[in-house]
């Protein structure tokens, strides 16, 4: 007979922040997770520390910072869902050391970002942002001066991953010549041409669009020196992360007229809620499109993200699967509710698997199946056992030196 989950799902507390799509709550409830607290906003550090203490799983978007300090307070936390592509808002290494896998949605909002970027390229090429601002002030700027088609113009894509390559396809369908630069070797889609350096891409592009993650290498990768290498009158679009462009340097280039326009969706410091004031050095420029980090904010994307990340959280909570985790060894064992299932997360030290197996051997319990994966820091093993046994075995597993977390699922 199928066994019950060892911890009744109604005791698994889930906190969803930042207005995650209702598809997430629906999926959780349909899978028996009824203990869900749903908030439309992000929490400040103090509020988050208070709340996270009792939470088993948390769902966040890009505004919630899960630093080491906050994670240390989350004694019961066993999984994190980033309902976004980016995972830079989480201290991934600390989470891993604490035995907490982090899941995200690597492509549910790709298309939404790509569409926004293409729209911005067209609007900027026509000088629409300035003309729109002027019209709102009662000025009639009917002129073809400095207004161009995107057809036959060079688009330079920095970061040819999911979003960059999607932008590439859409841009080619409009007749643009696509160039890209990536630190990894990539398959060029259509007629897109790989550049051998960022400088080469900057030199030839009429529009430059950034699609790299936030890392130490991408911090201010576009600053005064790089902007100076761009064509006079070129356009710059950033829907990646606010740290990637040096915005004061961009403001200087707009002031001097070296660049003729820009679009920014992301900023180094973004308001924590819609009630907080937004401040940027780019606000004074009519030829800059400013959007409040909404590249991935479409109904389609949010609904898909809600389902995708929730499914990963449920698969981990129900069966121990870490497939799709961004900071963890990838392990999945088919659910087998006829057996007893244990999870053991430990520091990756020699001999620990033997110690785990000895716990079962000493009780004459047969292991039906077992799957271990390690990385340089940790090991994660799922163990299915033949016999029905009591919770005491879990206590013994937890006592093994270098254990980070051990759970009995069912
Ligand atoms: N504005 C918004 O609402 C959204 C923003 N994003 C941002 O867009 C970023 C990119 O997303 P994806 O395309 O899905 O990621 P991805 O991981 O598929 O692609 C990123 C690409 O950048 C390349 N790359 C990394 N460092 C580089 C460097 N220094 N120079 C050149 N290339 C470099 C990688 O090799 C990879 O091909 C995300 O990390 C996220 O920060 C994502 C979704 C929505
Ligand atoms: O998916 C991403 O990386 C994003 O930047 C989207 O962030 P958001 O969920 O809109 O706060």
Automatic annotation (TrEMBL):
Which pathway, metabolic or otherwise, does it act in?
Amino-acid biosynthesis; L-serine biosynthesis; L-serine from 3-phospho-D-glycerate: step 1/3
This entry's Enzyme Commission designation comes to 1.1.1.399, 1.1.1.95
Domain ACT span(s) in chain numbering:
341-410
Q: Which Pfam families match?
A: 2-Hacid_dh, 2-Hacid_dh_C, ACT_AHAS_ss
A single Gene Ontology MF term assigned here is: phosphoglycerate dehydrogenase activity
What top-level class of enzyme does the UniProt entry assign? oxidoreductase
Q: Per the UniProt entry, what are the Gene Ontology biological process annotations, in alphabetical order?
A: L-serine biosynthetic process
Q: Which reaction does it catalyse?
A: (R)-2-hydroxyglutarate + NAD(+) = 2-oxoglutarate + NADH + H(+); (2R)-3-phosphoglycerate + NAD(+) = 3-phosphooxypyruvate + NADH + H(+)
**Does the record carry NAD as a key word?**
yes
Which keywords fit this entry according to its UniProt record? NAD, Oxidoreductase
Q: What does this protein do?
A: Catalyzes the reversible oxidation of 3-phospho-D-glycerate to 3-phosphonooxypyruvate, the first step of the phosphorylated L-serine biosynthesis pathway. Also catalyzes the reversible oxidation of 2-hydroxyglutarate to 2-oxoglutarate.
Entry's family note: Belongs to the D-isomer specific 2-hydroxyacid dehydrogenase family.
Q: What is the name listed in the Swiss-Prot or TrEMBL entry for this protein?
A: D-3-phosphoglycerate dehydrogenase
Q: What organism is this sequence from?
A: Maribellus comscasis
Which gene is transcribed and translated to give this protein? serA
């Amino acid at each position: 007979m199928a066994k019950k989950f060892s911890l009744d799902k109604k005791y698994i507390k889930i906190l969803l922040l930042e207005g995650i799509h209702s598809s997430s709550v629906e999926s959780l409830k349909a899978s028996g997770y009824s203990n869900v607290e749903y908030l439309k906003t992000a929490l400040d550090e103090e509020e988050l520390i208070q709340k996270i203490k009792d939470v088993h799983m948390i769902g966040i978007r890009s505004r919630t910072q899960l630093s080491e300090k906050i994670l240390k307070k989350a004694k019961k936390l066993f999984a994190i869902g980033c309902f976004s592509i980016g995972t830079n808002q989480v201290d991934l290494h600390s989470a891993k050391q604490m035995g907490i896998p982090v899941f995200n949605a690597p492509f549910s909002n790709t298309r939404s970002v790509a569409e926004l970027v293409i729209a911005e390229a067209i609007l900027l090429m026509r000088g629409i942002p300035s003309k729109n601002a002027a019209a709102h002030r009662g000025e009639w700027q009917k002129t073809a001066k400095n207004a161009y088609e995107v057809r036959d113009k060079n688009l330079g894509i920095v970061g040819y991953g999911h979003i960059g390559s999607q932008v590439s396809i859409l841009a080619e369908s409009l007749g643009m010549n696509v160039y890209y630069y990536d630190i990894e070797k990539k398959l060029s889609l259509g007629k897109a041409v790989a550049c051998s350096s960022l400088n080469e891409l900057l030199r030839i592009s009429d529009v430059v669009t950034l699609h790299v993650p936030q890392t130490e290498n991408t911090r201010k990768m576009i600053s005064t020196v790089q902007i100076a290498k761009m064509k006079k009158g070129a356009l710059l679009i950033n829907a990646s992360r606010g740290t990637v462009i040096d915005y004061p340097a961009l403001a200087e280039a707009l002031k001097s007229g070296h660049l003729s326009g820009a679009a920014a969706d992301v900023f180094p410091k973004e308001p924590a809620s819609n009630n907080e004031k937004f401040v940027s050095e780019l606000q004074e420029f009519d030829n800059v499109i400013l959007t409040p980090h909404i590249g991935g904010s479409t109904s389609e994307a949010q609904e898909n993200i809600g389902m995708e990340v929730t499914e990963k959280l449920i698969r981990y909570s129900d069966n121990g699967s870490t497939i799709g985790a961004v900071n963890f060894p990838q392990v999945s064992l088919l659910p087998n509710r006829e057996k007893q299932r244990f999870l053991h997360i430990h520091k990756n030290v020699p001999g620990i698997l033997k110690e785990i197996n000895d716990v079962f051997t000493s009780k004459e319990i047969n292991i039906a199946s077992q799957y271990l994966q390690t990385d340089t820091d940790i090991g994660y093993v799922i163990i299915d056992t033949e016999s029905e046994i009591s919770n005491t075995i879990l206590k013994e597993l937890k006592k093994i030196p270098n254990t980070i977390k051990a759970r009995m699922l069912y």
